[in-house]
Design the sequence.
């Protein structure tokens, strides 16, 4: 199925909430809004494919987007699951290369696309946007360093605990904009993010539930005791 593209101008209020554009003059926001292409996808549809030419910077308007890398689209290593307000495909925009990841709609999802040329032009003329881009990319680089540390120093239960804590508002978390629960994510996806397998992750989740840190509900993982989860997240092997 081919995604539906809408040409209606996006609200500049929505753009003002994105990390790159917070605090920008309304005139500039309206200019960006006119360039945005709104696209809708059904569950399982590919938004962009790793290795294909970069169209621009994407952001989630409604729904959730799963980012993966390697293997077939949607079946590689799960990097993140993004919710409304999250941006993706920055690397390809800034380095001029192809898409670095694949992106698939988790459910019915609407995204906005800002063409690459518009993004680059805005960064070149507005230091505030350039600074925001550097800060966001730096935070993600730091998060990648944390992943390497986790794989080397922490067991699976600790890695799962750290991942779940990300649901509470940190960068690079499982479902962005989810204050206390990780919804619409499978045990297999968690396993992919922490470098393990589903069976081991299930045992780790049960251990965290026995400790009173989380509650395993039918469709989500509820964080019951943040202090207990943080304690388990920082234990080293």
Sequence:
């Amino acid at each position: 199925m081919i995604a539906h593209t809408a040409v209606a101008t996006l609200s500049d209020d929505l753009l003002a909430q994105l990390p790159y554009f917070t605090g920008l003059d309304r005139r500039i926001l309206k200019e960006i809004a006119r360039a945005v292409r709104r696209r809708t996808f059904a569950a399982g549809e590919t938004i962009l494919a790793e290795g294909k030419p970069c169209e621009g910077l994407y952001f989630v308007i409604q729904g959730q987007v799963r980012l993966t890398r390697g293997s077939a689209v949607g079946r590689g290593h799960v990097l993140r699951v993004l919710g409304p307000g999250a941006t993706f495909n920055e690397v390809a925009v800034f380095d001029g290369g192809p898409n670095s990841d694949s992106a698939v709609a988790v459910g019915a999802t609407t995204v906005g696309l800002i063409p690459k040329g518009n993004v680059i032009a805005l960064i070149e003329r507005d230091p505030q946007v350039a600074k925001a881009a550097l800060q966001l990319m730096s935070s993600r680089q730091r998060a990648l360093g944390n992943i390497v540390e986790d794989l080397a120093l922490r067991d699976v239960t600790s890695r799962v605990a750290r991942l779940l804590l990300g649901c509470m508002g940190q960068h690079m978390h499982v479902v962005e904009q989810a204050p206390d629960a990780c919804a619409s994510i499978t045990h297999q996806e968690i396993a992919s993010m922490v470098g393990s397998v589903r069976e081991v992750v299930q045992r780790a989740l049960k251990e965290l539930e026995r400790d009173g840190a989380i509650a395993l509900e039918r469709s989500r993982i509820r964080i019951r005791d943040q202090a207990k989860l943080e304690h388990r997240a920082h234990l080293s092997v």
About this structure: Confidence is low (pLDDT under 50) at residues 170-181.
